[in-house]
Structure formats: structure tokens, C-alpha cells
Structures
1.
Amino acid sequence: MGVADPAAIATPEAISPLREAWTVYRRNVPAVFGTLLLVAIILFVLYGTFIYKGDPYEIVWAPQTPPGTEATVPLGTDNLGRDILRGLLKGGGPTLAVGAAAAIITLVIGISLGGVAGYFGGWIDDLLMRVTEFFQVLPALLFAMVVITLFSPSTITTAIAIGVVLWPQTARLTRAEFLKIRELEYVTAARSIGARNGRIMWKVILPNALPPLIVSATLTVGVAILFQAGLSFLGLDDPNTMSWGLMIGTNRQYILDAWWPVTFPGIAIFLTVFAVSLVGDGLNDAFNPKLRER
Amino acid sequence: MGPTAYIARRLAYGVILLIGVLVLNFFLIHAAPGDPAETIAGAMGGATARMLADIRSAYGLDKPLLTQLAIYLGRVAHGDLGMSYYFNQPVIDLIAARVGPTILLVLAAQVIAITAGVAMGVFAARKPSGPLSAFVAVLSTVGYAAPVFWTGIMLVILFASIIPIFPVEGMTSARFSGGFVAHIGDVLYHLALPAFTLAIIFLAQYSRLSRASMIDVLGADYVRTARAKGLSETKVVFKHALRNAVLPIITVAGIQFGNLISGALLVESVFNWPGMGRLAFDSVLRRDYPTLLGILFFAALMVVVANLLTDLSYRFADPRIRTGGR
């Protein structure tokens, strides 16, 4: 059997936990605002280039044209005369994609190691937690720089590098959840009917450990976006892929002459991570029954 | 466990972690595509055959892998982190020249963040729905979401052209003449903006955390007892409540040390602060592995020392942990 789908067995009057969480979530004004903002940013990045067409590398107007002075370049141009709005539209894709990909890598490594450690306990737990502590001693950005240097800069390397440095926190959280849940009756029940370890871990415990992991995954996406921005700002991401961090990095020498080429991409990063964190906080409130009464 | 045994155990654990970092470094050199000798030489294509032969014999690259590892660890134990062929200097000298400014920046940011964060948290906790509490909530979101290098650039624009009261670049003034005390003043003056920039992220976290922890503590029985005794509110808040509320801050501040170093790498780049960040960045661009891995080792060393100090200050701040040893 595994765990029964609560919605399937619920009587008409009963509310499934997921539906209850959704009810709480949609009444949470900051969370709804964050969701709408995030959806707007994703639509802007995905479809914006179809409405506001053009090559972000093309020189279209006089260098350092201030925003709002020329109708053809609403957000102005950078130090070479390239359209900043085109850059924002084109640069959002890699920023968001690397953030999401890195978060997935983090989750896969973190949940696997944390799950095994928390479920089996004993020396396996000790060993895996020492490994986790070891990786926490390495400053994440520096370690990501080392990984990138080893495997030459590209969008994929950046995503892997970020994923490889961010997983310890997810591993610790997963371990704590697994430790707690493995003692519950339904896990004993699953074991007593002869379910194998693998099935108990991934089909019985994991679905019940998901709420805090989803919250943490959301916040990891935010952190990964900041990492991607930081690495491309330093010029350590693929220099031929337009991204918000790269726009800030390439225009930083001219900030005292022109504030706009660095300000707009920064606002874009800020709004994205801000939206992600509002969604994360909202999910946390929705999944956490203790907070609901407030 | 007595304090001496405890410290000894923590020290031993720290040493094991650092040896782990060295083993990782060793395998990273071997994982890099191509000949390890060329990797060590910097893979610039300019390494002469003689240089490569020297490296091969110095690191025993023709010997079995475990022997090579032993040779590598032995060299590090003697303070030899290798040679930077790009800078043409021993790595240890390069790092020694840069580690001071980075420690200064990181510690200054940590002190600003803890002091201001705890102060804001304490005052916000007295009115959980007051304006300061709302400000702490906004600040913690902004501190989380704004990229630190961008905040730094915005501050450079602000202080370079709009209110020019702080220097926005470097660690000392050019053509500076003056005594030792004046020199320290000059460095602190240059430190103000970078340290504040780096502090913002952590200030946001600490203020949120200390507000929550202070609200918890102010509702505790012993605080009610202290008030019932007729102690002044200042004494209740700062002597009885704060001492307990500060414990989670110490824990988090210790955990955040690695992130402080990560942030410092970016902040150093924005403000041209002459620390390890700039060196790390240069060595990535030149594919200067010995320097980069040396920096990784030193950064890990700083984190291990910081964790050790956190543990000790925790024991100092929380008598409950100490009593077991007496």
C-alpha cells in the first residue's frame, strides 16, 4: 500500500492537508504578491523577447544614453551603446535557468545523502554528517570558483558548481525530518508488511518530509540565483552568455558616469529573489500548522 | 568533560577537517583535465620543460598516488603550499600578504552586524508590532534578496557622487603621510563602506533572529521574576533577557562565517580591497591552481578557527554547558 492519498479517502466534508495549505496560502497577501511577481518575471523573461525584439549585443544608440531620453531605448544604453532592456530580457533566461538547475542538483544530492543518513542512523549517519560538516567548512563561493576553474566556465559548469556547494543545508534538513518520521507508526506499519528500505524511504517517508523540503528548495532557488549573479559579475560564468550579473560586471567601471546600466539588472535580480523569498515564506506559513493560528 | 579535554577534542577535529581539505585539494589537482605538472605550473602554456621536470620531481609525480599524497601533505606541514608560477612567488607569501585585510574586513562586518542587529532586535522585540519590528521585517527581506556586490556598487555611486564623505576604493589613501595612529585611522576610514556593505546581509539575519529570540525570552518565567523583584526595565532587558537571547545569535554567527568569507570575495572586488578575494579572482583567470587551492585551504582554516572560537564563546555565555565540567 505505501501511504494512502489523503484526498482519495477523504469524506466530502474533510479538507485535504494540501487544500488546507492552499487556503492559508492564498489568504497570505505577501505570498500572493510574491507569486504574481514571480510569474510576471518569468513571463517577462520567456515572452518579452517576442514583443521587444532585438539582439542584446547590437549597438543601437549612442553609448550611455540615459533612460527615458530616447523612445527607442526606454531603459537607456550601456557603455558600448547596447540596449539595456534587450539585455534584461535576454539575460533573465540564463539567470533563472541556472538558479533552478542548481537548486535541483542541491535537492538531489541533499535529499539522497540526508535521507540515507537519517533513515539508517548509526555509523552511516555519523560518516555522512562528518562529510556534510566538511563541505560546510569550505566557503561556498570560493569552492564554486575552484570547481569552475577545473572544468572551464560554461552555463552548465556554473549550475553544477552552485549545486555542489549548496547541498549540505538540504542534507541536514532532510536528515532531521527522516530521523523524526522513521519513528512514526505508519513507517512501522509499512515495515511490518515487508516493505523494503528503499520503498519506505522514498515512497513512505519522503512524501511526508516534503513540506519543509519544498520551503527550503524555494529559498535555495533564491540563493542559487544570487550565486549565479555573483559568479557572472566576477566574470567567471560563460562570458558569451548574457545574464543580469554579467551586465553589472561589464558596466561596473563606468558607474560614476552612468548609473543605469548596473542599476536595472540589479533591480531585476533583487525583485526575482525577493519574489522567491515571499513565496518561500508563504509556503512555510501554509505548511506549518503551528504558525497558522497567529 | 573538562574544558581542557573539550578544547583538545575540538582542536583535533579541526585539524582532521583541515587535512581533509588538503586531501580534497590534492585530488582536485589530479581531477583537472591534463597533466598534473602542467596544472601545477598554471596551464598557461608557457611552462618550460625544465620547470615541468622540477615540479615532477618535487611532487614525486612519477610515484604511486598515495606516495604523492604523502609528499604533498608533508610539504604543506612545512608551510609549503607550492609556488605560484604566474606571480613567481611562493603561494604562502602571496596569501600572507593578503590575509590580513580580509580578516579585518570580515571581523569588522561581523562586529557591525552583530552589534546593530542585536540592538535593533532588542528594541523591536519590546513592541512586536511596532514600526521598528516592521522595519526589521523589511530589512531582513532586503538583506536576503539584494546581491551584495550590487548593494556595494549602489553605495559607491551614493558616496562617490552624492554624499562624498567616505572613500569608495582601496585600503589606504594615495600619498598618505602621517604617523602610525593616523595610518590606522586612514585604514578604518577606508574600511567603513566595504564593512558596512558586507554587514547588511548578516545584520538583516541577526536582527530578525534576535527579535524572535528576545520575544521568546521576554515571555519567560525568570524575566517575570526579575520584573517582580522590582528591577529596573533596563536591567531586566539587558542583564536577564539579553544574555539568554544572545545564545542563538552566537550559534548562527559561527555558522555564517563561511558565508561572510564568500561575501567578502565579492565586496573586495567592488571596493578594490586588497584581500584574498582579488587574489582568488586573479588566480581563477590565470588558472593558477596552487594559489587558488592555497586560498581555499586558508579560508577553510579561518572557518575552522571561527567555529572553534564560537564553541568556546558559547560555553562562556551559557553557564549550563560549563557546569558539567565542574
2.
Amino acid sequence: MDDTIGKALEREIAERKLAMTLDEARRLHGLFGRMPTPLEFHLFDIMWSEHCSYKSSRKLLKGLPVRASQVVIGPGEDAGVVRFCTHDGVDYDLVVAHESHNHPSQVLPVEGAATGVGGIVRDVYCMGADVIGSLDLLRFGDPLGPSGERCRGIARGVVEGIWRYGNALGVPNLGGDTEFHPGYDDNCLVNVVALGIARHDRVVHSFVPPEAGSEPYVFILAGKPTDDTGFGGATFASADLDGEQGMGSVQVADPFLKRILSQANLAALEYLFGTGAPFGFKDLGAGGIACVTSEMAAHGGLGIHVDLDQVPVGIPGLPPEVVACSETQERFGFAVAERFAEGVLDIYNRRFELPRLFPGARAAVIGRFTSEPVYRVTCAGAEAACAPASAITEGVFYDRPAEDPVSSSTDDPGELPCDPGKDVPAMLLSLGGCSRRAVWSYYDSEVRGSTVLRPGEADSCVILPVPGCSVGLAVSGDGNPWYGELDPFLGGAHAVGEAVRNVAAVGAVPLCATDCLNYGNPEEPSVMGQFRRGIEGISEACRHLGFLEPGEPLPIVSGNVSLYNQSSSGGSIPPSPIVAVFGRLDDYGVCCDMILKEPGNLLVLLGPRHREFGGGLFLRAVLGGSGGRVPLFRGPLEAEMARWVIAGVKSRRIVASHDISVGGLALAAAEMVLSSGGPGIRLEIGADPVQLYSETPGYLLEMAPRHVDRLPDHARVIGEITGDGGLSGDGWRVDLAGVRDRWSDMLASVVWREEGV
Amino acid sequence: MKPLVAVVRFPGSNCEYETARALDACGLHGRIYNWNELDEASGRGCSAWVLPGGFSFQDRVRAGAVAARERIMDLVFRDAQAGKPVLGICNGAQILLESGLVPGWNPGSVQGCLAGNLAPGRTGYLSGWVFMKPVGAGAGKCPWLMDLDGAPVPAPIAHAEGRFVFRDEDMAGASELAVLRYCTPEGEEAAGWPHNPNGSALAAAGVMNTRGNILAMMPHPERALHLFHVPPNLPGPWGEARRTRGAVGTPGPGASFFTGLARYLEVP
Amino acid sequence: MEAVYVAVRLKSPDPEAVTALYTLKRTLPCSAPELLFRYDLWEFLMKPGEAGAVAGMITHFTDIVNPNRHVSFILPQGGSPPGEDDGLSWTGVLVWDRLDSRSRNWTSLLIRRGFPVEEARCGSLWRFGYPREARDIESLAMTAALSETRESGLLANPVSQEAVPWR
């Protein structure tokens, strides 16, 4: 059979460096009934990429619990929206989004991490929200391992990208977490979460309103002039890392312009709400102008005619597919009634002076919505793309084979030595146990003037979303690669469990969660198996950890899937589901931190201890070994403990709290002492490794003696707060004063100063 | 009517909202003006100016240097020469130095700098809480410092360029104007890192002009406005208050900078 | 001791240079150049006979030169980086911080890691492109560079930095 079409398609794929397969190209050809134009090839290459279409993951994602009474908008739009609070008669919603920027950060750490922050805040801004916080969940390779040189450079670069971009934006950084694991040597993870607050009646949708069928509506592009940066970015995000490939794909972020745009956006939204005419608003991310215009039109059931000649460009002479698909940062798009377009343009171009502040930056009308549902792009009078609008958003799907992972969670390692005086310092001075202060010290956690608890003071950061309103917001993001590696299901379940504990520990009621599912190559059945189990773990935990309405889960309201996280040699990262949980405090004045308050108070342990050392810091940092059983996820117990802690904080019986996770009870107690800078802890526990180091989830709580008379079954007094700044137990004592400075400085010393490398 | 205090939003400022709220909370009326709202800002006639923190022009070329050349600074300059109180916080302080308003021996000439932090083994941005205290007789005539009682004041810093630098021959003069200095939680003048967090000359956290109406300070008083802002593990009486009274909205250590202005402007 | 100079520029347009040029054209139209470029300029004082080690050293740390992000050139003192527009006359001004922790920290890091360096120093090299007919471009560039008052030049604070012609 003469396959001239197949050959021609193959040639296009090679010449245009498309990521689509030949089968997908054939399908595209069939969709058009002709050879697609260059722009059409690139547009569909992006729309059908893993990053945009979720083609490998969509089927499994359906298992995640997404519905609950508080949810206003679940997964599907740029960000999730939940009911949050009412203040002065106005209802406010919380807007949350969670994404990865893993591949770009591995290649260009500073720009990759910066655009990661930039992209996620755009997702929240474009729902009409004011962004009130962000957090970064970072996974780096071993800075002391064989690829240490590169891992340290990447870690420094990522943190620099975050502070240079995020701090300038005026969005407080609410911490997040940082883990090191050799599985990330060739593929770091940079997950970013952003949260915002919007008036419930002013949440904006990202599609053209139906009114555009009866009166003229135009598309306004506002922001940086379009250039060739990030051309092919979405495709790049879905390819495996292979040396120098994809270099041109990382975008250049500009927080200065973003800050001005965010202020201009607020003014434009205010103006548009004032007109009473419905409108749509969306950020430009993957696929640039082509994706935003086609999605806005298609999701509104209309068509659009985009005139590329009207697009403000930074570089003359770019081919139409580059202008249409480049991922130039700092751009937003509006669908507005034509009669109000001038008013919007005026805000950007005159009031906020975009053209003066950044050469070529401005707002311009570049398209017109049409009732005929056709997506049409012209350039210099010629047609560059023409397709039924619905075809563009019709994705591709794969039902990829998945092989259940063999749990490598092994039997108990048997008799364990235990010398707390040595073990605890060894854990504190390991990469898994040392303070993350070196990272936070670069972050601005206090801009906006509404931060109540910063990183390192409590298990979650707490902020006040609405000025003058007493409702506080707590947020934490977690995911333990050492658990995921041994047991993908428990990796997912504990990511939710720990984030919930962290939020509950400050006294906040978990409202909703977001996830980012970071895995390897989905074409490998074993990786798809890990992915499936991870989702099952998250779902299981969410079903147990809903706290608002009886029978309802903790809903996942937004998220992202990042696949192909692997090196060119094929090694996949450990299964790395990362979950952020958002909680509400009715009164921020009664939130609880981890700082010890009063010598003479008692320390209460909540949660039984089991022999669960698998993936634990004790085996890693002290015994230099691995194996053991990963802690089981005990859903009903987790929920019951969280409820009790939230109630105890609210009634002010609990005055300090810290959850038990990495390093077990001993490390949790040591961290409380080290963060407090005065008081100490004396435990009534001997040198018992299960009691001290097992990572079975639980809480340590400081309570006054008069408040411990009615403890639940699984809680008991295990010690008291002392005035001596030390940590001791029956027959042992840890010299915390001797390790405090090194604990707090270790990360800076290894990663930034490269001492002892 | 409450005195109007103009808060200038330069392109890239990011602390304008909380700064205006801090003024409002202390008996004043803080109003944000865009860099290009010259007619509005001069038309109303404000009682004082605040240049808030942030990254005007992304700190390009040098923190504060480009913003110092914006036309709205002509208005600030004119009012400052007429004796109206002016406060620059963080990036605002950098703009005051680059404008030649502080130290202002010869107003308009650049006679000092807020240069890159100098800290052992570390480059770039640093955030964290520090202590400072008013030093010298000059502090008494500065409206922004009138309400400080001499005890160490904790507040957060968040900057990459906060090191005051003066020429050798100007150090004696600068010493009289460096009225706000980093100190230990107990109030001893900071001898070096970490109490002096950026290697600032004279351990200066804030420097005023010779007349005393203009203050350029690096710590952020608007982020220490309420007790809930104070970290629960901070040493000293403010940390103790946070631990015992909880995260409440009563005045924090930074409120005095704004109440001082209110008293100076005779707000009842 | 042997001084080796490395000029490093971003592959994408340098936003700092864009803002500087724009501001100079607006505030100092008489001294502003047609084009303005900025480079990180590293001065490495190498141990005798070790000048050749620089090339390997700078690519070792992606914070100094990340080939995905930067283009770098080893230059003789006063040398012109390649790629400047022939239609203009070019001159350079080097701006150093008198004291900066970036240079200090890199010096100690490089020495600690065993590179044959005595001292590393990092500044900014500004390259000014003036029309061919412009005269005394070196002094025009210095005027544009020195920030004696808020109405004068922009690129160097006279108190904390020194600006020297790059020649």
C-alpha cells in the first residue's frame, strides 16, 4: 500500500520536532480530511500532550474523590474553588491550584522554578482571585551523592528562582517542604501550590459567556509582547529528560511585569464587574494564544477568529505557529463585550502604563468570537488554521496497561540497637532531619502583613485571608518519597494523612486538598501500576479524612499529573504523590504552634506506637539500612485523632502541638525543643526504639496538668516540659545545645557553602 | 478628618496595601497613589508620605535607583524639603538613599547607599526577625520615632540589599543620623552577624536626614503591627506576650512608628 | 598571579539592560547610547601558570555559567565581547561593588573546592553602543554610569561602587 500520507506525516513530526506519535498524526489528518497546517500541527501537539490532555492518566483520575458540599468548582478549570468564610455580609471563596515544573527546573533551575511560581499564581489570578500565598514542594537528588555537584547547583538555583520571582510578586511564601533522595538525581521535582481568595459572587470563569452569541464579543490579550520563548513547552514537559533537548522551551519569567499586571487585572475586573456584562478571563499557559483562544471559545460553545497581525510581538518576523503557540510569560486573556473593550485597554495601556514600563507590553484586541463554532486563525491575510472548535478540545485517551507493584515493604529488621544520646543527633544532623531554615530564610513569608505562623513555628503556616476577618487559613504540603518507593499505596495515603495532621495540629479543620502526581514513564506497566496504587492511596485517605459533612470525603479540588519523570538512562523517580491540604480556623487567635510554653506542663502522646520502621529516618540515618514495614494508614484512627486535636486547640487545652512523622516521637520532641529556644522535654520513656523512632503517625501535645484528666484511649502522658532546654528520657539524655547550631545551619553548609563535600 | 498620608505605589512595589492599613489602624488615613497619579497626589495635599517596600522596577540596575528617577519623586522631594514627614521602608528606604534625600547633607546628591547584604557564607535575600532600638538625641525629633520608648523593638527584615554604606569622611556625620540601630534582644548594640543581619555600617537599621523629618529604614514595622505578627519563639517580652496571650490583634512592636506620626500630626 | 576575565550574558534579552537603556533614554537623552548590553564580569586571579584552569572551573558551577541560559567569553582586559553591531561605536564601563559577599563567598568556595584561584570578583560590564558620529564616547558612557545625583547617571552608586572605563 502506498503510504504517502504516513510518510508526509512522519516528515512533519521529525521536522517540527513534534511529540505526537504517528498514530496521533494520522488521527489528526483524519480529523481535518487534509494535511494540517503548521499551526494546526503545533496546536494539536500541545492539546494532545500528556501535560494538557491527561491522556494516560484521565481514566484513573476518575477514582479521586472530588465532590463535597463546600466545593464550588472542582478539577477542570484553572484552579479549584471552595466556600471559605463570610465577612461583613460578603461570602468569600478559597481558590487553590497545584502544579509541577519539574522538567524545566532540572534544565534551567532559576528560570524553571521562577516560571513554576509564575504559572501557578496566574491560574489563581485568572479565577478572579487575589493570590494570598504560595508554597513549594521540592525534591532534590542527593547533594552528597555521585551527582552531588549538579544536585547542589540545582537546589541553589531552584531556591533562587523561587525567591527572585516569588518575593517580588508580593505573595507570601508559606514554606512547603524539601526532601532529598538519590532517585531525583537526574530529575528534580518542583511542585508549586498557590492559594487565593475571591468574592463568591465574583469568581470568574475561563470561557466566553453565552451572551457572546447575541452581542459582539472580542478577545483581549494583555501583558508581555509575544516572543518565541517557551515554544513547545507543554510538549517538553511531557518528554523524558535527555541531555540538551528542549533548551529553548523554558520561558523567561518577569515578576515585575507580573506584579503590575496583577494590579491592573484587579482594576480591570473591578471595571468589568461594574459594567454588569458577563465576561471570561483566562491566563496564558501551555500552548499560548492558540490554546487560550480555542478553549475559551470551545468551552463557551462558540467559535473565534484570531488575527495574529494584531498580536503585540517582541520579535518581528516570527512564523504564525510560533506567535500562536509560544508560551511567553506574563500574559492574560479576556473575553469581553466589544463595547467595553476600550475601557479595559485603557486600564492596561494608560493607567498602568504597560507600554512605558516594558518595551512592547500592552493590551490589544486580537480576536473576535463568532456564533459559528469554528476556530479560525489568520496571519497577513492568509488562513493559518481552521477547524471545528469542538475538535480542538476533544482529547485523546490511552488505557495504558498497569502492573501492580510488588510491595518492597519487607519484614521487620529484627532486634534494633538504641542509644538516643547518639541516635537523635545523628538523625537531626542528616539530610532528612536537619532544619529547612536555609531554604525558608530566602523566602518572604510575611508580605501582605497577614501571616500569623511562619515556616518552622508550627506544623502549618497560618495566614489571614480577609483583612479584618478573624477566620484563619492553614496550609501544608507533604509527600514522603521513602514511603512511596517501598509502597506506592501508602505513599499516597500518608501524603494526605500527614498534610491533614499538619493542618489539624494548628487547630484548623481540613477543607480541601490538591495533589500533584509525579511519576515516571506511563508506557511502563510497572509505573502505571505505581500510579494507580498512589491514586488509590490518596482516595482511601481522603474518604476517611472529610471533616465537614458526615459521609463526605476530603475533596481533591485541583491538581496536576507529571509523568515521564526519569533520566535518559531510564531510571524513574520514586513514586511521588504530593498533596497539599487547606484548613480553616474560625478564630486565628486560638491557633496552636509547636513552641513549648510552660515548664511543668505535661507532654501527651496521641496515637499508639507500632513497629513501623520502613522508609524511616532511623534506619537510614542511624543504621544505614533500609527495609522494614512502612507505617500502615489507619484511616478511622487518623480522623479521630485529628478531631480530638482540633477540639483541644479550640478549647485551649492544647498549648503546643507537633505531629509525629519522620524520625518518630524522639525527633518530634527534639524539634519542639530546638524550635523553642528555652524549655526542654523530659520523657518517661527508656531507650526503646519502637517508642522513640517508629514513624507510626501521631501527635505530641503540650497540656497543663489540669487538662489531662479526660484523655481518649489512644492518648497518654509521656513526659513533661522542663526549663533546661534539653531532651531526656529514662536513662538517656540528648545534648541538644551541642547540635542546635549545626542542625539549623547544616543545609546551608552542604548545599550553599559546599562544606565537607 | 484624619490626616492623609500618601503611600506611593511604584511599578513593582508590593507592600502598599498593608502599609496603608497600618496607617489606618493608627488614626491616619493611608491612601495609595500610583507612580503616575501626579495630579491626584499633588492636588489633595497630603500630610506625609510613605514609600512602601517591594521591588520597584525589580531592583534592576540597583535597588531603588530607577524609581528614584520617577516624576512622582519630584513631589516627594518638594514636600520633604518643606519639612513634611517621609518614611521609606525597605525598598522605599533604598529609593530615599538613591534620591539623595537621606542622609541629605546636600539634598539631591547621592551620599549613601543601601548595598548588598554582607553575611558570612551567604549571598542574596534574607528574611527573619531582628531587634533595633533608637539611638542618640536626634531620634527624638523624628516623627516616626517619637513613640519609641528606648526598649528593643523587634520587626522582620526581608531584603537582599540592606547594608547602609557611607564614605569614610562622612561616618562621623552619619553616626548622628543613624538613629535606629540593630541590637541584641537585650538591647546591646549589635556587634555583628546575626544581630546586625546585613553588615550595615554603624549597625544602622534606619537613617534619617539632618532635619529629622525623613527616615529610611530596612525592617518592616507594618509587618509587626499586631501581636499576632510576633513569632511565638521570639526572645524578649514581645515573644513572651505572644506565647501567653496568643495570636491576638492588639498592637505589636511596629505600631509605634505610625502612632508617632499620628501624635506628631496631632491626631486627637 | 594572573587575572582572567570572563564575561557572561543571558541568552535571552537581559531585563536589567533593557530597563537601564530605557531609563537613560528618558532621563539623560544626551548621554544615553543607542544600544546597551550588560554582562556579569568575573575577574579570577589565578595562581601562577593556572590561567588555563578557568574554562573548566566556570562550567563546573552552573551558578556561574549555565550553558542552557548563558553565553560566556574569556576576554582580555578591556576586550570587546563578540557580536556587537558594527554600525555603532562601542565602549565599556565596569562597575564593581567595593565590598560584596558574592565575590567573597565564591572566592572561599572555589578555594575550598581545590581550584587554583587566589581571588574571584564579580561585577557588571556595561557595553555602550553609540552612533558612529558621537564623539568622546568614553566620557559619555561614564556620565551615563555615575549616579552622583538623582538627575545624573544611573549605573553605579558613587558611595558603594566604583565605575571604571573598561579598556
